[in-house]
């Protein structure tokens, strides 16, 4: 089954990493994949465009089925391989509701992280304002404090919606990314605990961004958040 | 069942409208609800904060279950009431993949629309740049052209993932909103057809934003997109 899958990915991209974690959790090792370079703009290549008209990574194909958006791909994989590997959507309605809620909030968390970490990349020099970056940082602080609150019971092994779920598949790469860019372990102890508990989970370890081994730390964009 | 549900909503908000369409489609009429005013900042009231710590609408509760993010609420409702009302997630893996893909792309479409329609609201006066608004409009044009392409077979009644689905629940309010802000019917004929076919669907008609009856048109923010 995995042999008819093809993933084009970029190292360190949280959306790509989500799909890779889901593939590991669903025991779909052996899928075909190709690492492309954002720096060389390989995500804009014909090879990508044929799968993803947005020229973005991940670009993911399973046989004739194309599903590129990372949450969509994870939902597809879980529903298609329900009884294989980890169960990523809980059965209980209350847990399911919480899982969907955190998963979707994770999508918005990505945008808020990017608005700080990639501010200079996203905004042309003549349009940059210290006041705008400051506001983005404040919004991110408020956001991260919410997540800190969501993880009150993390030390007891309760992740974003109880046992490991799609919510963690979607959100963990964001949190790893935040600590890579020097988020304070002291100010966010629950998030730090969450990170330290999950970083050695087999699916996450197996898909750890290759680029991060060479350069384990990013710049200090999130130091004062 | 519907009687134990409470929806706090704002008129004309696409995320609120999504949940209302889903409730209609799942035959959950009779749910409790309360219309709040964004202008009077009622979304920041204690009543909202008790359900939604983000101080955003929708705020939705079903018994003790809280699920506020609009896609999460729609996924919850469809899965909880699978055999009731319309079937909003197709069974076939290929159609399901397409449905999740379009649904999630719809989330990003909302952001792109807001970055143009609400530019002045989102960006303080001293940080506004014509070049930034122009870039946002160009990105929105590219985005809307993709959606125009997704709807090649709309005249034959094929919506975003074939029959009416969660993808349409999520995306239709964005499209209605775009035409309200004077998106060109000539430049986007498939989107216009999609709009005209779905606007009289019972679930959509029953949940049509009350505010829009009084002021059927917004400003012309999208006239030249």
From TrEMBL, chains A, B:
BP GO annotations: glutathione metabolic process; L-phenylalanine catabolic process
Question: Origin organism of this chain?
Answer: Amphiprion percula (Orange clownfish)
Gene Ontology terms: cellular component: mitochondrion
Q: Which residues form the signal peptide?
A: none
Concerning PROSITE patterns, the annotation shows:
GST_CTER (PS50405), GST_NTER (PS50404)
- The protein depicted here goes by the name Glutathione S-transferase rho
Instruction: Enumerate the spans annotated as GST C-terminal domain.
Output: 92-217
In terms of SUPFAM superfamilies, this protein maps to: GST C-terminal domain-like (SSF47616), Thioredoxin-like (SSF52833)
Instruction: Indicate the segments forming the GST N-terminal domain, all copies.
Output: 3-85
What Gene Ontology molecular-function terms does this entry list?
A: glutathione transferase activity; maleylacetoacetate isomerase activity
């Amino acid at each position: 089954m995995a042999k008819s899958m093809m993933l084009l990915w970029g190292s360190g991209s949280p959306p790509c990493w989500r799909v890779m974690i889901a593939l590991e959790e669903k025991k779909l090792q052996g899928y075909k994949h190709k690492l492309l370079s954002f720096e060389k703009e390989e995500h804009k290549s014909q090879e990508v465009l044929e799968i993803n008209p947005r020229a973005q990574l991940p670009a993911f194909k399973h046989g004739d089925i194309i599903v590129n958006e990372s949450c969509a791909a994870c939902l597809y994989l879980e529903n298609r391989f329900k009884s294989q590997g980890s169960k990523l959507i809980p059965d209980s309605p209350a847990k399911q509701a919480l899982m969907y809620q955190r998963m979707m909030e994770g999508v918005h968390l990505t945008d808020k992280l990017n608005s700080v970490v990639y501010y200079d990349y996203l905004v042309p020099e003549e349009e940059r304002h210290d006041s705008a970056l400051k506001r983005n940082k404040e919004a991110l602080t408020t956001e991260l404090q919410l997540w800190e609150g969501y993880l009150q019971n993390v030390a007891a092994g309760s992740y974003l919606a109880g046992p490991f779920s799609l919510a963690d598949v979607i959100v963990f790469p964001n949190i790893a990314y935040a600590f890579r860019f020097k988020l304070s372990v002291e100010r966010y102890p629950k998030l730090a605990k969450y990170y330290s508990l999950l970083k050695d989970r087999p699916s996450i370890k197996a898909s750890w961004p290759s680029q991060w081994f060479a350069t384990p730390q990013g710049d200090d964009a999130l130091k004062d958040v």
